[in-house]
Specification:
Length: about 45
């Protein structure tokens, strides 16, 4: 990761990856981790 900045929403990332790598291989784990954190933070008990 070369640079990361942002406010509450959205977060901007500047990354350098080899052209042979898929962007989705980088983004999917980040989205999954963020989603888990948000579910844990804003979960309401049933």
């Amino acid at each position: 990761m070369l640079l990361a900045y942002g406010e509450a929403d959205p977060v901007h990332l500047l990354v350098g990856i080899h052209p042979a790598h898929h962007v989705s291989a980088l983004i999917n784990p980040l989205q999954s981790a963020r989603s888990r954190r948000m579910r844990n933070q804003f979960a309401t008990p049933l």
